[in-house]
Amino acid sequence: MLSLSTGSIFVDCGSTVRHVDNITGIPWMPDDKYFDKDAGVNVGVNADVLSATQYYRNFSELTTVRYFPDHRIKNCYKFPVMANTTYQLRGTFFYGHYDNQSTVPSFEMAVDGTIVASNFTTQAYVMAYQEVTYVAQTNFTFLCLSRDATNTNPFISAISLVNVSVTPDMVDNLYENYYYLTQYRWNFGGNAIIRYVS
């Protein structure tokens, strides 16, 4: 249903260097130019986040995290896009006790002002992702994280923004300001997690 095209952005949140995934060839870049410089704290590779490699081998983007300890209403990433173009935006989250706390944070994720997920990071060593397919309305798109009633710190490991092609039956709904939210992705008969291929 979905096929990749040019203009994709892959952001390794909390990383300070650009690197290329040795399995997919995806070029991951640091996140510092996509959000307010006064927001967020990056956690580089440390013993706790590095535990990601025990559970998700070769997922280098899971070994760093950016978290938001301040109490602003929301913390947003801003990406350049082409208006009236279909994108798939994915936020990926791996907690791994990076902050040495015993409680897994709970928070909300919004895309262009619409809350698409809440309370989805429920297990410390399980990767979670929220993936939305939608039509960009302007030349910028926003992924925002905000606190919920638990008042714990939002965090994020990686962001993928991919310009995609969709089947004709999907187009009408998307242009009516709806979006598609991925619920599950199964690799039937396989034992590997499906990833983007460059």
CATH 2nd-level architecture = Sandwich
Overall number of structural domains: 1
Q: What's the CATH superfamily, by name?
A: Galactose-binding lectin
Provide the low-confidence segments as ranges.
none
- Fraction of residues in helix: under 10%
- Enumerate how many helices there are, as a single number: 3
The level-1 CATH class? Mainly Beta
Give the overall shape, derived from the CA principal axes. globular
* H/E element sequence: EEEEEHHEEEEEEEEEHE
Q: What integer value in Å does the Rg equal?
A: 16 Å
| SSE class | mainly beta
How much of the sequence lies in strands comes to 35-45%
What is the β-strand count?
Answer: 15
Question: What's the short story on this structure?
Answer:
The protein is mainly beta and 198 residues long.
Keywords:
mainly beta; Jelly Rolls; four-stranded antiparallel β-sheet; 15 strands; 8% helix
Describe the structure.
It is a single chain. The protein has one domain: Sandwich (Jelly Rolls), CATH 2.60.120.430. The relative contact order is 0.24. β9 and β10 form a beta hairpin. The chain contains 3 helices and 15 strands. It is globular, with a radius of gyration of 16 Å. By secondary structure, the chain is mainly beta. Strands 1, 2, 3, 4, 8, 11, 14 and 15 form an 8-stranded mixed beta sheet that branches. The chain has a 4-stranded antiparallel beta sheet with strand order 7-12-9-10, with no helix packed on it. Strands 5-6-13 form a 3-stranded antiparallel beta sheet, with no helix packed on it. The longest helix has 8 residues.
